[in-house]
Write the structure tokens for this entry.
Amino acid sequence: MAGAGKGVRGVPATLCDVTMHKTVDVSVDAMLDDLRTLVEVESPSRDVDALAASAKVVASVIESRLGGEAVLVESEAGPHVHWTGGGEPRVLILGHHDTVFPLGTLERRPFRTEDGHATGPGVFDMLGGLVQAFHGLATLEDLSGVEILVTADEEVGSRSSRALIEERALACGAALVLEGAADGGGLKTGRKGCGTFQVSIAGRASHAGLEPAAGVNALVEAAHQVLDIAALARPAVGTTVTPTVASAGTLDNVVPAEATVVVDVRVESSAERERVEAAFAALAPHLDEARITVEGAISRPPMPESASAELFAVARQLLPDLEGKAVGGGSDGNFTAALGVPTLDGLGAVGGGAHADHEYLVIDAMAERAHLVAGLVNAIRNA
């Protein structure tokens, strides 16, 4: 972050002359047309062919609205899309085009607009946010200093895109993240660090009826480990440690030789990140001859609210009724904030139901959110 009393790129954080940019309006109908286009190209994470098709469509929409060339950056996860308005980098618009929904979801749940909502796979997380940003930026006469990066693997940990995200965030000096809004339309001013651990247990098989004592029961060991792991949580300081998936055994008359436990972890501080990772590394078996292997880490560092304070203050000047909220979910904003880059998240669609069949976007909020992104970009570049 910039030093005390300084704002983005070292200028005063108080921008009293900031106003919402509305000299050119946006067309909600045009935004909905582009949203339909993106939704109808399904883009499940890890499906490289589907993501390749999706990236081409995202690039086409960017070029049609903003001009220039959107470059596809190939990766093992699928193509990321990068666009720049030229000039000195000043602000990174950050999003993703992968979704959690498998191919075929669109047939069951096609894109629709009804009763003030748009529905369909990915409308809220986060295709609606992409469309709003593109149309908001199109209202600006000058796009120099603006970069857009739309990645292909945010939903599965951003392993192939993290280095590129960090490179461009450091180059730009400010990041605006297009994840869906918080409840009630607020912005996301803080996020927990998050990660996944897998605890693998090796025992020894034996006949469950004839020689149960000759085996080492990996399922029993897993039960001990689940209790030990759950006890690592510290809700009072925002740390959740939640065993989520377990598997063990082969047949009902065989002492299980193997078991696995998958654990979701969320933390609010770096100190808690270090404590929890150390505790997983120190897990020890309860049964003689059982062996434990731990994989994983808290891969997204916490995004403290201090990382968003400067930009949130500017957003409040644009829309005084905006609220900020710290949330438990992670995003690529965790990476940019951890670098000290001022980061504001939740600038995407207003709606709800992320990752669920009832996912929706509020149509009446689209124009305001598009102008909010444009106003923030103007404020950052003019500071």
